[in-house]
Every structure is written in structure tokens, then in C-alpha cells.
Amino acid sequence: MTIHRRLDLRNNCRRVIRRLLCALFVALSGSFLGCSAWKEIATDSFELPATQISPDSVSLQITFLRVPVDTHQVNDELWKQVDEQFIPIEERLHLNQNGIRAGIVGNQLPELLNELLEAEQTDPLDGLDRALTSEMDVLAKNRLVNVREGRRTEIVSSSPRDELVMLYRTKDSKVRGKPFPEAQCILAVKPYPGGDGSVRLQVIPEVHHGEPRKQWVSGRGTFQLLAGREREVYQELMAQVQLSPGQSLLMTCTPESTGVGNAFFVESGRGDAQQKLLLVRLVQTQRDILFDVVDEPEGS
Prior knowledge:
Strand content: 35-45%
Largest sheet: 6 strands, antiparallel
Shape: elongated
Order of helices and strands: HEHHEHHEEEEEEEEHEE
Number of domains: 1
Oligomer: single chain
Distance between the termini: 113 Å
């Protein structure tokens, strides 16, 4: 072996040794600097925060029931178990003259209402219900809503109509008729919770008609530009009731089903005319005077 080959072999050995020493140095440096393998850290499962309900909110359950028009059990037998005395006699007569009947149902529902509720739950959605559920703010079959004090929520009480001629009897017994193009019957509901857990509930019939347009709407000291339709509000036909948790407001048409009551609570677009019964049940209220903080007088 020549001298040149020996020198090349020696240089190659030095290069290999130098590389091994560098690799060893890097490995030792990593261990001294604290490098370590990945470790799984135990973390609590992620959960969405619970929905916060406003202290002045009210939970209402809204349900529509349907029976054939002129059902004897509904128009006679059922109302023997419903309290109609909460409305002053003059206002109750005015409602009846316009085809509307209203009363309070206690915590224990009459047997007929229970049967209708069971039948409604097993009956699949038909064309009318699908049309209703496609609208905004529709409470078609059974829906739970939370409403704040004095705020309105809307119950759609009829399918849209190309034209509606409403016959309305005023308090001085005058009958007025008015046509509404592209109309729909709406019940505006406003709750006012009391300190004892009860709620004063207002239900006002309205007819929304015409093409949507932008308009300024006032409320709580402010003005908002909202898109909506014209409203015909029947303030004189407001049904007002004081409900305790578990009680329900029952509204429907009179047996004659005339005027406003016919427009709001009779549906004939399905072939045979159907009478609708509206149940608005007070589920709970957040306000209770027993838990209100009362400032103690000075010096006590």
C-alpha cells in the first residue's frame, strides 16, 4: 500500500470519527436541555354554556288543536269545564258578538282536551301545517317560547289568503266590513309577570296584509326601521287573563263561527271546515317576589 493511500484512509477515518462525535454531542445536548417525548395532558370535556334566561322572561307553550266545525262536545260539553268568568261580562259579550270565545283551563286538563292532544301528536303534518311552519314566528302545532315582559310574540292563526273580507261588530253594535289583500290572521301575545309567579297575558287579534315595506316602529324609547306589512289591530277584542303556572288560556270561535272568530279559528282550505282551538299554557316565570332583594332601612 502506497503512502498516498494510507493518508487517504487516515483522513476518511478522521471524518467518520468527527461526524460521530458531533452526533453524540447533539444528542447529549438535547437531553440536558430538557427535550422529552409528547405527553397527553388531561383536559375537561368542552361543554357549551347553559342558556341564560332573562329574569323578566316567561315560558309559554302554544298548541293548536283541530276538530270538525259544529262539534257538539267542543262547543257545549268542553266549556262546562272552562272558566269564562275572568273576562268582564261586557267585554265577554263583545268577544262573542265577533265570534270569539275565551276561557281559563286549570292544571288538570279536561278529558276531551287530553284526547285531542294525543290525537294531534300522532297525526302527521298535513299540507296546511307544512305551509304554516314555513312562515316566520309560526307557532303551528306545539311550540315552547320564552318572551320578555311587555315584548310581543306572534301566533299565526291562519294560512295566507289572497283576499280576506273581515266583518267586525263595534261596541255600539255597528257592523263594518273591510277587505284586506294578501292577508293573514295573527294573534299578538304580550306577557306581564307579577311578583307572585302569575302572569297577566294579553292576546290581541291582528290582520297583517299587503306587500312588506319598511317603516319606523317605536318601542321602549327608541325607533327601529323594520320591514313588515300593514296591520289592522282589533284592540277592543283583546283577551286579558291572569294565569298561574300550569294554567292555560283557551281561545276558539263561537258555535256560530262568524266575523273575526271565523277568520281566526276556522280553516276551510283542507276541504271540510276545521275549527281550531288555541291553548296558551304558562310553563314558568323567572320572577318571584320571595327572592327579590329588599334593602333594609338604615338603623335596623
